[in-house]
Every structure is written in C-alpha cells, then in structure tokens.
Amino acid sequence: MRRGGRLANLLYPPACLLCHARLDASCLVSAEDAGEASVLCRECVQAAIPNLPPVCSHCGVGLPGAFDAAMVCRACRRASFAFDMARAPWRYVGPIRETVHQFKYYRRWRLGRWLASQMTRTAQDAFPLDEISLVLSVPSFWLKRRLKGFDPSQELGRAVARALKKPYALTLVRRTRWTPTQTRLHGASRFQNVRGAFAAQPAVARQTVVLIDDVLTSGATASACAQALKSAGADRVFVLTAARTPI
Ligand SMILES: [Zn+2]
Ligand SMILES: [Zn+2]
C-alpha cells in the first residue's frame, strides 16, 4: 500500500459503504470476492443472495426447485421476451436492494462501480464475449434525464463496457416517449406501458449487443428496448442487470 493510502486509512478507517461497519482485516472481503475494491463488509456480502442456478435459462429468473439446466420459466414459455438471454449477479433483495437504491437515488458512485464490477464478471461467465460488438444502456426519456441529471443505467453501462473493453454507444437507442413508472404496474400492463417506447439507429444492424439496466423485474422494459434493437437489425441482445427480482 502506498504511504498516502496508509495515512488515509489511519485517519479514515475503511468502513462498509452500506452498514458502516469498520472494515478491519478480519471482515474485509478479499479483493477477489468483491471486485476491484472492497466496499462491503463480509456480513453484508454474505447476506446478499447471488442469482445462481437454478435460474430460467432464458431470462435468468430464479426457479426454486428446478433441477434441469435447460428449464425455462412460464413467461419464457409464452415467448414474452425479445432479448436472447438475461443475466444478473444478484437477487434484488436484502443488502443488494439497498445497494441499488443507494446508488440510484443517492448517487453513491462507489456502490455503482462495485455493482458494475459484479456485472462484468457475470457477463464474462454467461455471454459469448468474443461475439459481443457493442454495449448499450436502456435509455431513460431525455426530459427525465435532464431533470435528474443522472442516469444509473448509463453509469453502469459505461463502467461495464470499459471493463469488457467493448465500445459503449450512448445514442444508438433512445426512448421515444415518456412512460409512467413501471413500479406501480403489474403483469401485462407493464408490457403495454413500454410497448413501442424505444427506437434504435440503423448502426445496430448485425451487431451483438449487451444491453444494460439496473434491475430486471418483469423484463418488459428490457424486452421493449431489445425489440427496437432487433427491428433495426441487431443480431442478438443479451441483457445484463445488477439484480434480478425473484418471482
Ligand atoms: Zn456492511
Ligand atoms: Zn424466463
């Protein structure tokens, strides 16, 4: 450790960014476990639930009791989604839900960077990286972006693209209209709400895309965005989010 780093640690002992527990040697999660920087204590990481199999082989939702790696969920059997696969490192519960909230609503950049490092690892494990030509984010409506001055899925997209050494394109897909928030809608109305709300540029034709968002819940928004990319000629769309809402 550099001398400056040692001095900073003495003055400001490293603390978990979520529960503020002091990170001493015994509770520090190793750099290997936590991505490039240790930002959460061992207790917080252990209370987080990885989105590991059994999950739907298509949309990545946890399937309790499934035993077959090729299982698909009910939504995927109905062919609800325009994307080819969706994966997330974590389930959207407990400390991860809190981490995403802190990043989205309080702009805690270091938590965002930590989430992006976890997403990068998931992409490396789950997606055919050699074939990926482009990273994009699910865009918010321009007015909303301007009012908030912050776009979480853009921040995650940039960080993941940099880590994967893939081009990040901000403007190739856009939201064409304002849509009411999905959080108060359920089931089919979520799909209706975002249908046709995206448009993609012809430059996505024949590209294999990783599409980034913060959380995948019903999958309706990511699917509508993937549909726009496919309509503009994209070959395949892999959705990558920080967390996946359990069924
Ligand atoms: Zn903690
Ligand atoms: Zn599924």
Summarize the structure.
This protein is α/β, with parallel strands linked by helices. It has helices at 3-11, 31-34, 42-47, 74-77, 94-106, 109-126, 142-148, 152-164, 188-194, 220-231, and strands at residues 85-87, 90-91, 134-137, 173-175, 198-200, 208-216, 236-244.
How are the elements arranged and paired?
Elements: H1 3-11, H2 31-34, H3 42-47, H4 74-77, E1 85-87, E2 90-91, H5 94-106, H6 109-126, E3 134-137, H7 142-148, H8 152-164, E4 173-175, H9 188-194, E5 198-200, E6 208-216, H10 220-231, E7 236-244
Helix pairs in contact: 5-6, 6-8, 9-10
Bound molecules: zinc ion (2 copies).
- Number of distinct helices: 10
Hetero groups bound? Answer: zinc ion
The level-1 CATH class of the largest domain = Alpha Beta
Query: How many beta strands in the DSSP annotation?
Result: 7
What structural class do the secondary elements suggest?
alpha/beta
Low-confidence stretches: 26-36
Shape: globular
- Radius of gyration of CA atoms, rounded to a whole number: 18 Å
Query: What percent strand?
Result: 5-15%
Major sheet, described briefly? 5 strands, parallel
